Amino acid sequence: MQITGVTQHHVSQPLEDSFGPNWIPGYPQGSHEAEVFEIETDAGITGVTASPSFAGGLDYATPLSLFLQGEDPHDVEGIMRKLETVDLIGPRPWHLELALWDIVGKDAGKPVYELLGGSDDPIRAYASTGEVQPADERIEYVQERVDEGFEAVKLRIAERSDLDVVRAVREAFPDLTLMVDANKGWAVRVMEEETQWSVAEAEAVARELADIGGIEWFEEPLPRHDYAGYARLRDAAEVPIAGGEFNGGPQELYEFLGRDAVDVLQPDAALVTGIKRAVEVAGAARNQGVRFVPHTWTNAIGFAANLHVMAAVGADWCEFPHDPPWTPEAWSAPIHGEFAADGTVTPPQGPGLGVELNRDLLEGDR
User: What is the mean pLDDT of the chain?
Assistant: First the structure.
């Protein structure tokens, strides 16, 4: 089997209202944007994948074709070496590896998690917010998620003063598992610069979170390349420290592990590793007693890929993005149907990634 070409589509799905994600300070979004790729083969099997995008999109299907044409999609490791060159000179390419697994799974007639030795056992899902909101709005939101069956929620904070929201939610829901994400690892700087913390400031926030209690982890309190700072913070903090969702490839994740810098490692297969390297990193984390809980906040295809990884490695939590207007319906727009969770989620059962493109939403080929 050989790859014969790459087709790219831009997807733009309007949101029902503006959405102000914590990682794009001062720049509300009105739509969900993605680049969808189809990798075609001479066997008539097509693999799909997608990457986050922005209004107007980013066209890079033609150079990708030059790297991939003639390659056997089953040679995941060999193609990953080629993608390292793409990473050197162009956009992050790791999402393309997801399409290889989609092809391999379709060729075998099996879902990816099964090819990787995993099971379809339900995985606990936590409802993941994206905005910093006032306490009364967050309490109402959390009640809705609890009513739906969620037993954990991740709250966002940007400043130390936002801990008042965490306290209010804890008081309203004394037994609910809470994760807290500061989003200091990276940011999209369009309108404003994000506020960053020193290690001492992050330690102070961690102490307050420990006092609040029931915090499953404290996520990205420092810039993503401050490995020494993470190690110091982890050594001092009384709450678990998490990070790694948007680092620059597997080698940076091994840097976290080598420095004993995190309790929870969170690389997104669509952004950082691809599926194969995610499974490898998860094994290394397990050997070191570090939990592996991938970031999933991209789109439905990226979510599906990470879910196959979680099923393969036995992750104990699945991040489930849900913060209206950023709803499962909105971020599932590139595919038919939508992902749903009622406190747990299971991987798709169809061959490959188990998703089908919503071609009514795809814009013209690029």
Answer: 94
Residues 56-83 as b/e (b if ≥16 CB within 10 A, e otherwise) read ebeebbeebbebbeebebeebeebbebb
Site of tokens 């075998």: 108
Q: State how many domains the chain has.
A: 2
For 229-248, what is each residue's pLDDT tens digit? 999 999 999 999 999 999 98
AA identity, residue 240: P
pTM (predicted TM-score): 0.95
Q: Which residues pair with 50 in a beta bridge?
A: 36
Which of 271, 215, 283, 278 is CA-nearest to residue 245?
271
Query: Rounded distance, CA 43 to CA 52, Å?
Result: 28
End residue of a domain, out of 50, 80, 111: 111
Is 23 found in the same domain as 132? no
Same domain, 174 and 203: yes
Distance CA 250, CA 241 (A): 19
What is the rounded CA–CA span in Å between residue 315 and residue 350?
21
